[in-house]
Design brief:
Layout (H helix, E strand, L loop, with lengths): L2 E14 L2 E14 L3 E5 L6 H8 L8 E10 L2 E2 L5 H7 L4 E4 L3 H4 L6 H12 L4 H14 L5 H4 L9 H13 L5 E5 L7 H18 L2 E5 L3 H7 L2 E6 L2 E7 H6 L4 H8 L63 E2 L17 H8 L2
Parallel strand pairs: 3-8, 3-9, 6-7, 7-8
Antiparallel strand pairs: 1-2, 1-4, 4-5, 9-10, 10-11
Helix pairs in contact: 4-5, 5-7, 7-8
Length: 349
């Protein structure tokens, strides 16, 4: 299984009247073919902005991708001419957004919107595109598909609209599907149906998925790899089982402790919240973004130097990496186990 996409040192800023918003700060990772990556974190952690940066859908102004490379099948998407990037969107990389009602055009029929990309990217004529559109609606579980092509978005329920969005995303057999909190606006039963549908289609088409969510439970049941973001940075990343069962970053640990769980031994056990507020993203990042809220912080170190994203000596898997100076199990500082080049940077702070 080869590497499908590699993100290198991605930096995205928003230049507003209130100041510069440091939305994404040096994000790097690899995504393999057929892999499902779950990206989690609080609102404002940079999850969605990083995905929109990959698609080059950041509104400009005020947004600007200021650094980085996004290699997708050997091409740097950030350097492609606009006309070539338009051909990538939909055909090779598709995206599903949180609210389908704002993504679908209310004055065009579902059939018109579905056939548009088929004609543009696949070169189909009207008849073939219409037949394929009906087939896609049937594939995502919408009954009487041929008739529903003539309906408008307001004639579908929220769950059905999201199924339409999935059908549109899959219409050109993309190699990568980016889903930005696609089930947040739906009730729990419909959420489960959409997630099972995505799993089935993923296995059927063999596509890679980036699933962005604040719901750790959903990600645990869907993702192969979990990437935790905070303050526009990746703070922990690894195989889903390792991240949830062998957590290595204080922020990830705080997220898990704040979740209600049916398997808690004591029914009256209180949830533990993460103290404090998310960082003000208008302040230039220095040190660990979680420093102010972290119960394990080390003054003079964590607030001065951003730890590298590498496997800690306590990690069982080389693919399980974290950005933290501390062993969350013992509270021990790990600087002596960090490469000499990084130690030198810390000593010079």
């Amino acid at each position: 299984m080869g590497v499908l996409m590699e993100v290198k040192h991605l930096v995205t800023r928003f230049h507003t009247q209130e100041g510069i918003v440091y939305a994404v700060n040096d994000v790097s990772y690899k995504l393999n073919e057929g892999e499902t990556l779950g990206v989690v974190g609080e609102s404002g952690s940079g999850k969605s902005v990083h995905a929109l940066s990959i698609m080059r859908l950041i509104p400009s102004p005020p947004g600007r991708i200021e650094n980085g490379e996004v290699f997708f099948q050997g091409r740097d998407l950030l350097q492609l001419p606009n006309d070539q990037m338009r051909l990538v969107r939909g055909a090779e990389i598709a995206m599903i957004f949180q609210d389908p009602m704002t993504s679908l055009n209310p004055v065009l029929t579902i059939g018109t919107q579905l056939t548009e990309s088929l004609k543009l990217h696949m070169g189909m004529n009207e008849k073939d595109a219409s037949a394929r559109a009906a087939e896609l609606l049937g594939m995502v579980g919408i009954p009487d598909a041929q008739r529903r092509l003539k309906n408008y978005p307001h004639q579908f329920s929220g769950g059905m609209r999201q199924r339409v969005m999935i059908a549109m995303a899959l219409s050109c057999n993309p190699k990568l599907l980016i889903a930005d909190e696609p089930t947040t606006a739906l009730d729990v039963t419909i959420q489960a149906q959409i997630i099972e549908l995505v799993k089935k289609l993923r296995d059927q088409f063999g596509m890679a998925i980036i699933w962005i969510s604040h719901d750790l439970g959903v990600v645990a049941g869907l993702a192969d790899t979990v990437q935790v973001m905070y303050g526009g940075r990746i703070v922990e990343r690894g195989p889903a089982g390792d991240v949830f069962k062998d957590t290595r970053h204080p922020y990830t640990l705080g997220l898990l402790k704040s979740l209600p769980r049916h398997d808690r031994r004591q029914q009256n056990e209180r949830l533990i919240q993460i103290e404090g507020q998310p960082p003000d993203m208008r302040i230039p990042p220095v040190g660990c973004p979680f420093y102010v809220r972290c119960p394990m912080r080390i003054e003079g170190l964590c607030d001065k130097q951003m730890p590298p994203l590498i496997p800690g000596p306590e990690s069982g898997s080389p693919d399980h990496i974290k950005a933290c100076w501390v062993d969350v199990r013992t509270g021990k500082t790990l600087t002596e186990d960090i490469p000499a080049s990084v130690q030198a940077e810390v000593q010079n702070v």
